[in-house]
Specification:
This protein is α+β, with helices and mostly antiparallel strands. The chain contains 3 helices and 6 strands, in the order αβαβββββα. Strands 1, 2, 3, 4, 5 and 6 form a 6-stranded antiparallel β-sheet that branches. It is elongated, with a radius of gyration of 16 Å.
């Protein structure tokens, strides 16, 4: 992972999602449009949240993203299947980092080649109050402990 935080912290793999590249994901240049990579990452994030019963409750609390980033390393083209690996970093008071890697799977091209990596900062909020609140203990238990790697 090239993200600075990802290189100083030891993120933990928590989820893997496979999905097809759809014809409509491509743009006029014949490759997957850059905005679609964010949709792929979003689907992986929401799939993990669903898996851990952490879907946002508009009248209660839940996760929101406060920033998102993506590095486009190699273009994706239809047809094909991708695998999105989701990693999480250690918890803060009310937030944690998520990282994602998008790889091509199957027989086309070079299977397993890293095509993109990105992530987002997730903040736990009280939706009616519109304020961050401490992460629930159940979520903290799913996140890796704070461990810094020695500088290289």
């Amino acid at each position: 992972m090239t993200n600075t935080l990802a290189t100083t912290l030891q993120p933990t793999l928590v989820h893997t999602l496979r999905m097809p590249i759809r014809w409509g994901d491509m743009d006029a240049m014949g490759h997957v449009n850059n905005t679609v990579y964010f949709r792929y990452i979003e689907q992986a994030r929401i799939s993990w949240f669903d898996e851990i019963a952490c879907t946002p409750d508009p009248v209660g609390e839940g996760p929101v993203i406060v920033n998102a980033h993506c590095s486009f390393l190699k273009q994706l083209k239809y047809p094909g299947e991708i695998e999105i690996s989701t990693f999480v970093g250690p918890p803060g008071r009310s937030s944690f980092e998520m990282f994602h890697q998008i790889r091509m799977v199957g027989a086309d091209g070079n299977p397993g080649t890293l095509h993109a990596e990105g992530g987002a900062k997730i903040v736990w909020v009280n939706f009616p109050a519109e304020k961050s609140v401490p992460l629930p203990p159940a979520i903290c238990k799913l996140l890796p402990p704070q461990k810094f790697l020695p500088p290289k």
